[in-house]
Here is the input.
Amino acid sequence: MTGARTKPHELRARRRRGQHGCWDQLIVAPLWVAYGANLGTMLRTCDAIGSCLAVPRTAHYRDALQLGDTLRGRRPCIHWVAPTKEGWLETQREAGRRIVAVELADGATPLTRLEPARRSTVLLLGHELLGVPDEVLATVDECVEIPMVGWGASLNVAVAGSLVAYRLAGLS
Ligand SMILES: C[S@@+](CC[C@H](N)C(=O)[O-])C[C@H]1O[C@@H](n2cnc3c(N)ncnc32)[C@H](O)[C@@H]1O
Here is the structure.
């Protein structure tokens, strides 16, 4: 049985106090995601699980995140990716982070078997039509696939990214 609906201010009081700090254990990186609505959704997911968000340092991403920011200024830490995505990814690798892609690919780990991140991890999400580029996919430490039984070829990228991010954060 459930009780009365909890008020938003009561929910907030039970959670983290103060501004998000750079947790660094999980950086969600929708580097190829194009649609503003998907970027806004990922921003909210990052806030919910306490992770950081990494996006290219371009006007498109800045504007999309500003528009999709429903967190009234208390948004998660944003890592601006520059000058190139490839160069930024190399820096993450050199810093000892694991690179995990969310993609439908041969040899991918099914979501049901994915373990929470034990060390600092970058989570890559692909473009709405083109996915994660093949040359990047070939270099990642792990690829995660969400099993599907329906007719659709794939999930919405923000849904797929959020499911995997929750799991890596150890919250589902
Ligand atoms: C709509 S899908 C891209 C599909 C694209 N036509 C392709 O074949 O690569 C956009 C992104 O959502 C994510 N995605 C969607 N469904 C997924 C699933 N079932 N498992 C893992 N990733 C998924 C991946 O990051 C993918 O790059």
